[in-house]
Amino acid sequence: MEVGAKRIQQIVQSLRIFSRMDVSEVKAVNLHEGIDSTLMILQNRLKEQPHRCAIQVVKKYDLLPLVECYPGQLNQVFMNLVSNAIDALEEALDRVDSKPETAEPAHSYQPTIELRTQLTGDRFVTISVSDNGSGMSEKTQQQVFNPFFTTKSVGKGTGMGLSISYQIIAEKHGGSLTCSSTPGQGTVFLVGIPLRQAAAHG
């Protein structure tokens, strides 16, 4: 009972951090708390499912100062990027499972998401979300931030997540959001934002 109560407390705290709805205000926050709250909210999608193994999450966090941002909006970006990585890994797992028996066995493939943060110089911070999923073609990469573009099946996505994320990073934070991908190897989304919003908009 005590463990269950503690678990609920953690989830409530994560939701509180994630859904900071004071989006009209810039606040100096710990980015790692926002990323961790996203992972807590998505834990059910990350854990083992009847049809697949658990998705491994590797965190490589740099020592970061507090970052001035719109916390609720930035957490929405983290949610979109991690959710997309999970989708890509599930698609890759489906492909592994559907291969003939002579191919590499499905159990040798470990779906993994890596989250890395890094201080770049003394003015910028970068956050990368990478997966070892199926990857994307060059053509898909060129369209990935376009509104309503999606590679997902009907009912699985609106095609707005990455477009909105790009807008939040580029327009609201004066930063950058880029994608690099290799078919059959995986995808990396790289977010770069200034430490201080006055510098971004000044």
What would you note in describing this structure?
The strands form 2 sheets. Strands 2-4-5-7-6 form a 5-stranded mixed sheet. Strands 1-3 form a two-stranded antiparallel ribbon. It has helices at 2-18, 31-41, 43-46, 71-97, 138-143, 161-173, 197-201, and strands spanning 27-29, 56-60, 67-69, 112-120, 124-131, 176-182, 186-194. It has one domain: Histidine kinase-like ATPase, C-terminal domain (Heat Shock Protein 90), CATH 3.30.565.10. It has 7 helices and 7 strands, in the order H-E-H-H-E-E-H-E-E-H-H-E-E-H. Helix content is 41%, strand content 22%. It is an alpha+beta fold and 202 residues long. Helix 1 packs across helix 2 (31-41), helix 2 (31-41) packs across helix 4 (71-97) and helix 4 (71-97) packs antiparallel against helix 6. The longest helix has 27 residues, at 71-97. 28% of the residues are buried. The chain is globular and about 50 Å long. Strand 6 and strand 7 form a beta hairpin.
